[in-house]
């Protein structure tokens, strides 16, 4: 992947390929004899399929097969007992509206689409419930514990505080909706070897899931996924539709491609669960927090429980002797949710950071001063130090940049023409742990270095970051380094998620470079060369075309257990709210990341910008609206589910503290994919309050709520 136009070592290694169309995404692979699948989905929400009439579809031009529970070939892994995950085409049961119930395969996409429209399904309808808000109050709806209840000090201490805030914050279902649609190409060959081109955040995870479902060795499954057009969490698992495609390829003995439609993206690949959260905050009159109570409910499915870290940050973000949290999930007749960027924490931060702002207002304190006053030196939940935390510095830098001194504590103080102007702030935090990964390094006598790992790049620029880590350590220019990823046959690495790739795979890159350097030093010594000799000279002197090392990094440094490791962010926004229409425009953004050393400045900035875009969506526009009479989404398209576009997003100022974390990994770099969005919606809601005096506790903040 050459860089044709620029010479900046910080440029994305794949930037030119991406913008010129050379980068190949899964759906672009042309296999000989490729066939096309189209899914038929349930039009009821719960019940039983009584018949599938696929006669007309099967007889339509070009059709190769129609698979459903009536004729599906055996999938060995589905026969095993247990497992809550949806087993596609396994039974006649319908568990949610839009459930894939049949797959039509034809020689062209158009013919498959037409044939799918001919499949006639009859049902026995059952009673269903998709109403999240109603279910929270309904005692007959079972609510499951999503996490063990947590109590520090006195439960509900806020109720006896001098100043109290008790409010409920709600959020709708959001869908990830990356530009690239989900899908897979599966090519099952007669020797039970299968190759897939997939959209995945984890090639090893996809490999293992397919191998497990079909009970074949993992090595028999080759997963290719070099480029991914956005994931945001939805490609963290191998979905039933992918298993169906592999099933079809095996059955029809042909390669099959399935790319789902935009409306199917709303029911087949997870969503950010709707949430209902109650926060109780207590403080002394002079602004010391004395109690935090956070009770959260999250939407889940009836067939699989989904939980996430909604209440996590309430336990340690502020110093309070008394904290208690509860988290429940509400199983509904909907498809199972999945992590969506800043999973759980982004949901929790909206509630907590709104409540913090409400308390600051009740105390007539500046919300920044209030946060600083309650900032803990140590992690109060674990009673141990943070590995690094520069939040006060981040406040200072961000507030100076946005012009926080212009903000008035009294809402509705700034008017510009027919717009009310307001400022808001919110913090974000996410775990900065690190996993275990393997990397192979091949150092060549031609002066180049090839690094290989079965990690992914869903957009953050994994290859660019890894190249920079290696470049610095090996003193090799970045254009002589290649990082190969997205291929399950490479040394194993975890899925790209949870802001951990740079930390995890980067540590292995570090370790492999250290090992390569040691080998070069050894070779130099053995051949009586100077210890500082260039590796090219050392390899040549030893008649070696290359040396190779594969290293698995350790999961954490030994002393990591003595620290709480988190990345932090602070988002400052200025909003303008139109007095007559209630339209909210985010007019200025300053996001400050406290995520350790910045390894790759350009891609790091892009992460923060992307998080701000997602944050604007969460705050102002994104909402998947379900019609509870039918259990069906009514705005399942890009015209009605509005993801922010350029016109919605102002220039984003990104500031990094850029100080290495001494504990997390050799680079000192903490993760930053999630902190880019966590807290952002709260900052917007707080700014809207500052502009208008109206506290909106239900996302998205649409004009009807503002007026
Ligand atoms: Mo992210 S929600 O960890 O892909």
Descriptive terms for the model:
iron ion binding; molybdenum; binds dioxothiomolybdenum(VI) ion; Aldehyde Oxidoreductase, domain 4; globular; 25% helix; Aldehyde Oxidoreductase, domain 3; single chain; AldOxase/xan_DH_MoCoBD2; alpha+beta; oxidoreductase activity; 26% strand; 3 domains
- CATH C-level label of the largest domain: Alpha Beta
Cross-sheet strand order for the largest sheet: 3-5-1-12-9-10-11
Give the name of the CATH architecture of the largest domain.
2-Layer Sandwich
**Distance between termini?**
52 Å
Low-confidence runs of at least 5 consecutive residues: none
Q: What compounds sit in this structure?
A: dioxothiomolybdenum(VI) ion
Overall body shape: globular
Q: Into which percent range does the helicity of residues fall? A: 25-40%
**What is the count of structural domains?**
3
The CATH H-level homologous superfamily of the largest domain: Aldehyde oxidase/xanthine dehydrogenase, molybdopterin binding domain
Number of helices: 16
Q: What structural class do you assign from the helix and strand content? A: alpha+beta
Protein name: Xanthine dehydrogenase family protein molybdopterin-binding subunit
Pfam families: Ald_Xan_dh_C (PF01315), MoCoBD_1 (PF02738), MoCoBD_2 (PF20256)
InterPro entries: Ald_Oxase/Xan_DH_a/b, Ald_Oxase/Xan_DH_a/b_sf, Ald_Oxase/xanthine_DH-like, AldOxase/xan_DH_MoCoBD1, AldOxase/xan_DH_MoCoBD2, AldOxase/xan_DH_Mopterin-bd_sf
Keywords: Molybdenum, Oxidoreductase
């Amino acid at each position: 992947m050459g860089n044709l136009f620029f010479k900046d070592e910080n440029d994305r290694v794949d930037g030119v390929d991406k913008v010129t169309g050379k980068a190949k995404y899964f759906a672009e692979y042309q296999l000989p004899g490729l066939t096309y699948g189209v899914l038929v989905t349930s039009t009821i929400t719960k019940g039983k399929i009584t018949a599938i009439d696929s006669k007309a579809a099967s007889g339509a031009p070009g059709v190769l097969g129609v698979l459903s529970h009536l004729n599906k070939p055996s999938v060995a892994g589905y026969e095993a007992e247990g497992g809550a995950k949806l087993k596609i085409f396994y039974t006649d049961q319908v568990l949610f509206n839009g459930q894939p119930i049949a797959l039509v395969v034809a020689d062209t996409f158009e013919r498959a689409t037409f044939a799918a429209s001919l499949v006639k399904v009859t049902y026995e309808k059952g009673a269903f419930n998709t109403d999240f808000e109603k279910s929270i109050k309904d005692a007959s709806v079972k609510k499951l514990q999503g996490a063990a209840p947590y109590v520090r000090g006195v439960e509900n201490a806020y109720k006896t505080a001098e100043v109290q805030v008790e409010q409920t914050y709600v959020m709708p279902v959001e869908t990830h909706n990356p530009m690239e649609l989900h899908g897979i190409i599966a090519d099952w060959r007669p020797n039970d070897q299968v190759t897939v081109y997939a959209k995945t955040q984890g090639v090893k995870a996809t490999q293992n899931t397919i191998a497990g479902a079909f009970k074949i060795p993992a090595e028999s499954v080759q997963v290719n996924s070099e480029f991914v057009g956005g994931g945001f969490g939805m490609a963290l698992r191998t979905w039933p539709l992918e298993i169906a495609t592999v099933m079809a390829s095996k059955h029809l003995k042909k390669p099959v491609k399935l790319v789902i439609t935009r409306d199917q993206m709303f029911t087949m690949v997870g969503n950010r669960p709707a949430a209902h959260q109650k926060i109780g905050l207590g403080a002394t009159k002079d602004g010391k927090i004395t109690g935090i109570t956070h009770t959260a409910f999250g939407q889940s499915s009836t067939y699989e429980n989904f939980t996430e870290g909604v209440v996590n940050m309430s336990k340690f973000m502020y110093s309070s002797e008394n904290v208690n949290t509860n988290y429940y999930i509400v199983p509904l007749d909907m498809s199972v949710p999945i992590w969506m960027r800043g999973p759980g924490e982004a949901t929790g931060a909206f509630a907590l950071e709104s409540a913090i702002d409400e308390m600051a207002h009740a105390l007539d304190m500046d919300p920044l001063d209030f946060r600083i006053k309650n900032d803990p030196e140590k992690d109060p939940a674990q009673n141990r130090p943070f590995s690094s935390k520069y939040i006060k510095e981040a406040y200072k830098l961000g507030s100076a940049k946005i012009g926080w001194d212009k903000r008035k504590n009294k809402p509705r103080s700034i008017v510009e023409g027919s717009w009310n102007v307001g400022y808001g702030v919110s913090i974000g935090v996410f775990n900065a742990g690190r996993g275990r990964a393997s990397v192979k390094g091949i150092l060549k006598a031609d002066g180049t270095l090839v690094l290989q790992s079965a990690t992914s790049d869903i957009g953050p620029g994994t290859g660019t970051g890894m190249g920079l880590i290696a470049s610095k350590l090996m003193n090799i220019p970045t254009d002589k380094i290649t990082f190969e990823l997205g291929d399950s046959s490479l040394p194993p690495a975890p899925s790209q998620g949870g802001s951990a790739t740079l930390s995890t795979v980067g540590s292995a890159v570090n370790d492999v470079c250290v090992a390569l350097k040691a080998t070069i030093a050894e070779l130099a010594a053995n051949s009586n060369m100077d210890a500082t000799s260039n590796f090219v000279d050392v390899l040549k002197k030893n008649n070696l075309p290359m040396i190779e090392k594969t290293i698995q990094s350790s999961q954490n440094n030994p002393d990591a257990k003595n620290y709480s490791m988190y990345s932090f962010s602070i988002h400052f926004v200025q909003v303008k709210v139109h007095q007559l229409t209630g339209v909210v425009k985010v007019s200025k953004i300053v996001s400050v990341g406290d995520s350790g050393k910045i390894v790759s400045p350009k891609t790091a900035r892009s992460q923060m910008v992307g998080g701000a875009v997602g944050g604007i969506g969460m705050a102002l526009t994104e909402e998947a609206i379900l019609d509870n009479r039918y259990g069906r989404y009514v705005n399942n398209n890009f015209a009605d589910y509005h993801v922010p576009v350029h016109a919605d997003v102002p220039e984003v100022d990104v500031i990094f503290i850029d100080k290495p974390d001494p504990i997390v990994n050799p680079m000192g770099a903490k993760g930053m994919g999630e902190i880019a969005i966590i807290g952002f919606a709260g900052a917007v809601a707080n700014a809207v309050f500052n502009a208008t005096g109206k506290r909106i506790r239900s996302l998205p903040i649409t004009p009807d709520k503002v007026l």
